[in-house]
Amino acid sequence: MMRGCVFCGIVAGEVAARIIHEDEQCLAFRDINPQAPVHVLVIPREHIASLNEGTPENEQLLGRLLTAAAKVAKAEGIDGTGYRTVINTNAGAGQTVFHIHVHLLGGRIMRWPPG
């Protein structure tokens, strides 16, 4: 746990979130500023600031975030129509909370390039 990290606060139950999936390694909750009809964040319970801080020991956990995102997409009914997963790394890419997280976006047509 990283003191002052809002996502660590969600993991600890100290910060409210609309959690829709959780297991022993990660949890998923609705984004408070959704950019699509379905916008869910999937985070590890362990604090990893960004993809840059991932280590070989984190490989299984990082893969787990993606399989959890796919599970949530299915539960949300967007697995057949399509969805996007995004990991922003550092401020220049739009990362605002420095606890790695996967954005799961769906429920609308996704354009390319994303911007």
Written overview of the protein:
Helix content is 20%, strand content 22%. It contains 2 helices and 5 strands. By secondary structure, the chain is an alpha+beta fold. Strand 1 (19-22) and strand 2 (26-30) form a beta hairpin. The model has no long low-confidence stretch (mean pLDDT 96). The protein starts with 5 loop residues before the first helix and ends in a 9-residue tail after the last strand. A 5-stranded antiparallel β-sheet has the order 1-2-3-5-4, with helices on one face.
Give short descriptive properties of this protein.
115 residues; alpha+beta
Short description:
The protein has about 120 residues and is α+β, with helices and mostly antiparallel strands. Helices cover about 20% and strands about 20% of the residues.
Beta-strand content bin: 15-25%
Number of strands: 5
Helix percentage range: 10-25%
The coarse silhouette is globular
Mean pLDDT: 96
Oligomer: single chain
Task: Flag low-confidence runs.
Answer: none
Number of helices: 2
Spatial separation of the terminal alpha carbons: 32 Å
Which class do the helix and strand fractions yield? alpha+beta
Largest sheet: 5 strands, antiparallel
**In order across it, which strands form the biggest sheet?**
1-2-3-5-4
List SSEs in N-to-C order.
HEEEHEE
Alpha carbon gyration radius: 14 Å
Secondary-structure map:
Layout (H helix, E strand, L loop, with lengths): L5 H6 L7 E4 L3 E5 L7 E7 L14 H17 L7 E4 L15 E5 L9
Antiparallel strand pairs: 1-2, 2-3, 3-5, 4-5
